[in-house]
Amino acid sequence: MLSCACVLFDQHAGVTNVLALVPTFRAMADHDFLLLVHGESTDPTVDIFEREAAFLPTLASVIEAVPTLRIVLEHVSTAAGVQFVAERARKGSRLAATLTVQHLLLSRNALFAGGLNSSIYCLPILKHENDRRALWDALLGEGAEGSPFLFAGTDSAPHPRANKEKACGCAAGCFTAHASLELYTEAFETAAAERNIPTAVWQRRLERFLCEDGARFYGLPLNEPRAIVLDKQEWKVADEMPFGSAATVIPLRAGQTIKWRIRA
Ligand SMILES: [Zn+2]
Questions:
Q1: CA distances from 152 to 162, 210, 251 (A)
Q2: How far does residue 213's CA lie from ligand 1's centre (Å)?
Q3: Cα–Cα distance for residue pair 55/59, rounded to 1 Å
């Protein structure tokens, strides 16, 4: 398995032509390995908000060259990305995508609200509000049994605060592992309320998104039915959390409340 292809597709790692890897992708398909892609163009002349969309033609070429390869477009963040995955998956391509809580809950407005908020600087960078809403539409537009090609993938990244706030605060990533399930639940609940989707429908869709569809795409058995119960109960997230012996990390929603809580 090639995990997060940030490196694979990073010019500094030497790979500038993804299609040169087709023989490797064929070998992966032959052994039923999955390709997990950080799908952004690395061309520095491409606008940072357009890099996911700019990568999609390359992804289409990979699919065309090796249609039997199972591919996950990790942390999809745009309307273009999620529409590409939906179209290809419905046509039978072995393509799926993961969604993070930060891309579901925040747009680029949050990145610049009151200043530059380095704790939520991540890649792919937070996108336009229309993109965020397109992710919600794709998730909940087809009811409880729709969109099995979209499932959870937190991409949670605990970068120490000192690396996020130094002269070049270039460590990209959001720390969400402290409350991922609760934050996904908030996103589903809010999106469902806007669309008048019944509670049982969005909660079933959430269950599949968190627990089933990813495992099915990977060909893994579902976990034993061990229930995680989430209560509708507000709690306050810490301003920062200890990280290692001397560092701290700023969690998503730091100092603010979350509406759901895992029952201990
Ligand atoms: Zn990535």
A1: 28, 5, 18
A2: 20
A3: 6
Length of the chain measured in residues: 264
Q: What distance in angstroms lies between residue 201's CA and the mean position of ligand 1's atoms?
A: 30
Say how many C-beta atoms besides its own lie within 10 A of residue 249's C-beta: 23
CB-based contact 157:172 (threshold 8 Å): yes
**Can you point out the beta strands (E) in 114-155?**
150-152
Class of residue 253 by CB neighbours under 10 A (exposed 0-12, middle 13-18, buried 19+): buried
Q: Rounded to the nearest whole angstrom, what is the distance from the C-alpha of residue 169 to the centroid of ligand 1?
A: 17
- For residue 98, how far is its CA from the centre of ligand 1 (angstroms)? 11
239 is catalytic: no
Q: Which of 155, 213, 231, 239 is catalytic?
A: 155
pLDDT in tens, 229-259: 999 999 999 999 999 888 999 999 999 999 9
- Rounded Cα–Cα distance for residues 72 and 87 (Å): 14
**What gap in Å lies between CA 133 and CA 154, rounded to an integer?**
18
Q: Taking the model in full, what pTM does it have?
A: 0.92
Structure tokens at 49: 């908000």
